[in-house]
Amino acid sequence: MDSRSKKIRHPTYDIGTRPFIVIWEVTRACDLACAHCRAAAMQRPDPAELSTAEALKLIDQVAAFGPPSPLFVLTGGDPLKRADLTDLVSYAAQRHLPVAFSPSVTPLLTPESIRRLRDAGLKAMSLSVDGACPEVHDSFRGFSGTFDRTMKIWETARNCDLKVQINTTVTRLNLSDLPGIAHAVKRLGALTWSVFFLVQLGRGTNLAQLTPAECEDVMHFLYDVGTVVPVKTTEGHHFKRVFTQRSILDRHGLSPDEFLTLGPTYRALRAALEPWPQGNSGGRRAPMDVNAGKGFVFISHTGDVAPSGFYPVAAGNIRSQALGELYRDSDLFRQLRDPARLGGRCGRCEYNSVCGGSRSRAFNVTGNGLEEDPLCAYQPGSFPFPQEASAMIASTAAA
Ligand code: SF4
Predict the structure, then answer these.
(1) Contact 227, 284 (CB under 8 A)
(2) Is the pTM of this model over 0.70?
(3) Closest Cα to atom 7, ligand 1: which residue?
(4) Fewer CB within a 10 Å sphere, N or C end of the chain?
């Protein structure tokens, strides 16, 4: 196989025994009112959220997975609404967990609070950038001035030597801003640009979803962006299929126009992206083979354990059951890890062992988390290099 071709990465251990990433919603309290908020966050903390003592026990359970420790992400609501946040970060760092957090850009997020958390052991943070200009971003976030503050915090985080992930939720409202955001990420630098494909949950129920064809176009655009910006998708698992197909075409020096359907959204995004460095597959970072319940676990502010933050079904609660047990042995998680259980096109698809589609979207649209992902346009078996695709999927690279 051509050494330049990139394979989907996968963890070096049995993904059924331990997660790659643990996301804990430390609180639902938040002072913002973002248009796409999964949690439909509220101003005051839920009295039922995990206490400090329960939170420390949770951290012990995450640490109990042992090395290599999962990435431990503290999300919200706004994590800074928890008075004990610094102590929790410090405790998790002492237990050798790589800790990241995803704050809301409110007056609580200051250079001082970032430095305090960095000194406590924080390694990374994510920031939401949903528009390339204040008008688009601030209308998403519900407050004017948020865009400018986000840009300043981005710089502060980098000056504090924190790794920064930029998150963008893509809807019809900000689709045309994607090239501008890509340029901002290239200019300002980030570990990853994570593009989230909407699951219509919480406040996001009212946002304009892309069509499957538009979604496909955005994924091809993201593949092109990947020459110089490390891109990942959230709830857009079929990017792994697009990545594999484009990588195979690159290897043969073939144009995607001849073998894949690239529509007007792709062409508009691509034109707006120029000038952009060209490159071959050698410079790209391949996506990771993780999905809801498969390398991924979400713990709610009250301790419910779910396959993702967008899959509102709990396998159990850490107040009464061990996290590791729920991840390894619950029927919900085991089913989601088994591609043979998938239905519709995802069930027939040759990419389902590395893609599998968004289980969260399938659940939210059909009520059955094993159904096909309605945002994927692919007809299984239609890509003309099936043997190469199978070989590449079978030989996924170790992360
Ligand atoms: S049909 Fe399902 S498994 Fe296949 S690429 Fe689309 S989302 Fe992924």
Answers:
(1) yes
(2) yes
(3) 357
(4) N
- Please give the Cα distance from 306 to 369 (Å, whole number): 12
pLDDT digits (tens, 9 = 90+) for 117-157: 999 999 999 999 999 999 999 888 777 899 999 999 999 99
* Mutation choice for ligand 1 from 260, 361, 373, 383, CB with most ligand atoms inside 8 A: 373
- Which of residues 123 and 30 earns the better pLDDT score? 123
Which candidate, 336, 344, 342, places its Cα nearest to that of 379? 344
d(CA 200, CA 22): 22
Rounded-to-integer distance, Cα 371 and Cα 348, Å: 11
Bridge partners, 99 (sequence order): 72, 122
Could you give the CA distance from residue 371 to residue 318 in angstroms, rounded to a whole number?
28
Residue 103 burial (CB count, 10 A):
26
Distance 367 CA to ligand 1 centre (A): 18
Q: Which of 36, 94, 105 is nearest to 69 (CA)?
A: 94
Is the CB of residue 357 below 6 angstroms from any atom belonging to ligand 1?
yes
Quickly tell me which residue has 């997020």 as its tokens.
Answer: 109
Which atom of ligand 1 has the smallest separation from the CA of 358? 7
- Tens-place pLDDT, residues 72-115: 999 988 999 999 999 999 999 999 999 999 999 989 999 999 99
Q: Once rounded to an integer, what is the mean pLDDT over residues 291-299?
A: 97
Residue with tokens 């299984």: 380
378 C-beta closer than 6 A to ligand 1? yes
* The residue to which tokens 């020096």 are assigned: 253
- Best of 197, 220, 237, 350 to mutate for ligand 1, by most ligand atoms within 8 A of CB? 237
DSSP state of 142: T
